[in-house]
Amino acid sequence: MKYVIANWKSRQTLAEAERWFDSFCQFYRPDPQVQVIVAPSFLCLAPLWRRLQQNAMAHLALAAQDVSPFPTGAYTGAVAAAMLRGLVDYVIVGHSERRRYFHESPQEIANKVREARSAGLKAILCVDQPDLHAQFAALSEVEVDDLMIGYGPRAAIGLDRPQAPETITAVVAELRTMAPGCPILYGGSVNADNAARTMALAGVSGLLVGSASLDPEEFARVCKAVATPGLKS
Ligand code: PGA
Description:
Mean pLDDT: 95
Helix content: 25-40%
Number of strands: 8
CATH superfamily: Aldolase class I
Largest sheet: 8 strands, parallel, barrel
CATH topology: TIM Barrel
Radius of gyration: 17 Å
Bound molecules: 2-phosphoglycolic acid
Shape: globular
């Protein structure tokens, strides 16, 4: 299975998200080999989930961009994994922006992985240097085996320049030794023009797309490139 994730980050109001969804439905051609995952803000999850029920788009699922490291309880402002159950199948944890701006530690992120697992949600663990080894050390073998990994080098995020292909393949190979059975995705300046060649890199099972996922037509082109990396988009 291959994966493409649209990470909208702190962007898109509910009205914009609904327009995006309607537009994406016109361009999207589901492929049984490609799981497409859209990660909007928490606020948009329930309305988009309802839309997905009405429009039943194949191979299209929702993800939360984050989850509380605590269970349900007296934790003001937090969204617990149990509250997401039924709305999403996936939860992104440890994105480099969470580590950088919200000062999340490897241990806190490991707690989020634990919470996601206990609610039956698949954790998409984002990793980068310098926390890579500390992050895996904070997780048990069973927890690691169950992950999807997103390699998102901070230096390549939000630009027009993905990381050098040889660096991506070297880090992906290293990640493969730490998480042998897990799908490994690359994220950092992926767009419709470079998606096919990024997917063609050894060991890359999918793409994490930020800025380029905000345009529904472009994101549909990324999905197509992932489905058929040999075709020009
Ligand atoms: P970008 O973000 O596509 O805007 O570089 C990617 C990411 O945050 O994973």
